[in-house]
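your task:
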Amino acid sequence: MAKWGMVIDLEKCTGCQACSTACAMENNTLPGESWQDVLYYKEGKYPNVNIKWFPRPCMHCENPSCMHVCPTKATYKDENGFVLIDWNKCIGCKYCMIACPYGVRFYTDEKPLIEPDMKKVYPGQDGQQYSPPYQNPNSDWTKGVGIQPKGVVSKCTFCYHKVSKAPAGVADLDEDNPALKEYVPACVRTCAPKARYFGDLDNPDSTVNRLIADKRGVRLLEHTGNKPQVYYLGDHGVVPAFTRPDKS
């Protein structure tokens, strides 16, 4: 079995948010519900201030705190490293949202973040939050794939509906490979500067493993013990302070 993971090169990322847009279109998320956040922050003091950005998907942790606190076992980890939500079991208690140190889960029954309220423009059908005419045909509520029903939590799935169909034994999913591009997560496939990589963390020959080793890949909030399967590359001075425990 593969253990899928992502590598994001901060030195290549331009903050264009193509990943955010592609994810929203692929997964039909509500406006303002961004499974692929690009956080902006600043370093230095005026007049020497640098604006930087930090992409933040779900980390699909090896030891996910969200899973441990779920009272109905709706959040679970499968054999290929995906952390998923079974919407049939989720009761919307939000314990997972509190437990997640990365802030990457959403509860969309609340007041819409952006107007107009798409839930009123395209009223939901068959229990869905809303039913836009452009929705992705892939839907699996046991995996948290599709337009979520009312009263549940949602999040990035690493495009489970695409990646899970990739041929067995593949080390990397690269959009430049015509035979594999349909299995590449939407955020990776649309990254113009090729700052994102996706592959098998258990395969020593994968590009993601080579990059993590050669460029000293780091994980977000490593001290929590969650062990994310998303790694960041680049000058460690570029990685914002919240990626490391406070050493003061």
User: Anything to note?
Assistant: Residues 18-27 form the longest helix (10 residues). Confidence is low (pLDDT under 50) at residues 241-248.
